[in-house]
Amino acid sequence: MTPITEVEGRRVALSNLEKVLYPATGFTKGEVLHYYATTSAVLLPHLRDRPLSFLRYPDGPDGQMFFAKNVPPGTPDWVTTAEVPRSEGPARMVLVQDLASLIWAANLVTEFHTPQWVIDAPGRADRLVFDLDPGPPATAVECCEVALWLRERLAADGIEAYAKTSGSKGLHLLAALQPCPSEGATEYAKELAVEAEKAMPRLVVHRMTRSLRPGKVFVDWSQNAARKTTATPYTLRARAEPLVSAPVTWSEVEECGAPAQLTFRAQDLAPRLQDYGDLLGPLLDRERAGSLP
Q1: What is the third-level CATH fold of 124-228+239-288?
Q2: pTM for this structure?
Q3: Which of 92, 142, 159, 263 is 20 to 30 Å from the Cα of 149, by its Cα?
Q4: What backbone torsions phi and psi does residue 219 show, to the nearest 5 degrees?
């Protein structure tokens, strides 16, 4: 029988709590739900009002994975949904607005992916993102070098950047923007990626072409497009271990000498939150948002 729990007055069905989702560490679905419940205070503000794309992996990272953008079958009627314009026609998508919706979505075993805009202004970017993806033998160490260059370049335009791990091999840089067309944010991000490649040609590539990427950091500017999404801060990732897309300090980026220094698992987040709070909190402060030049 599927257990039912009450979350903020909502009845949420939970299933297979003892199922091991991360075989490398024995991390269970129940522990996944506990992680999301205990990080909800910092995670929810980054999810709120952003249409959710689910990367589902119900049998763990070694099983089937699939992306879902439309509202999943069986979604409770109390979960907020909204119609989202898309080039192929409008879609109805989930908005995780509260703890009950978060736990319901986490029970589906999902990575949380969100666009750089909110539902009230689709296609108007209020965040800028760079996904720094290292091509072996490059690692997160090289990503940090590129991140520091981009941080200074953005600062020259009056834009303050913040960093988080991707939860995989690389880094994400994020900045709050005064809302602007996603096309403009994409064009600006591409310009900076091209500049980075010119400044560090042995280290950076701005094109996705696989043959160009070994030993370099691909500065992916394309996730600023309105149709694209990025792993939400604090989401678990579908990897061998329960890795988290975790915010990091610039001191940690500056001092990184090995990838392990910027690898964070679910159990690492509670002490980090106690020490730092939400390092990406400034992204939520409209008064601190930058404007594109």
Answers
A1: Alpha-Beta Plaits (3.30.70)
A2: 0.95
A3: 263
A4: -90, 95
**Domain residue ranges in the chain:** 4-114, 124-228+239-288
Task: For residue 31, count CB atoms less than 10 angstroms from its CB and return exposed for 0-12, middle for 13-18, buried for 19 or more.
Answer: buried
Distance CA 186, CA 128 (A): 8
| Residue 85 to residue 223: CA distance in whole angstroms | 17
- Distance (Å, whole) CA 144 – CA 171: 8
Q: Which of 231, 228, 220, 223 is nearest to 113 (CA)?
A: 231
Cα angle 184, 88, 221; round to 5: 30
Expressed in percent and rounded to 5, the helix, strand and coil fractions of the chain are 35, 25, 40
d(CA 51, CA 39) in angstroms, rounded, equals 20
CA 7-8-13 angle, to 5 degrees, is: 25
Name the CATH superfamily housing domain 4-114. Answer: DNA primase, PRIM domain (3.90.920.10)
Give CA angle at 237 (152, 228), nearest 5°: 60
Residue-averaged pLDDT of the chain? 95
- For the stretch 80-106, pLDDT in tens is 999 998 878 888 999 999 999 999 999
Distance, CA of 257 to CA of 252 (rounded, Å)? 10
Mean pLDDT of 69-76: 93
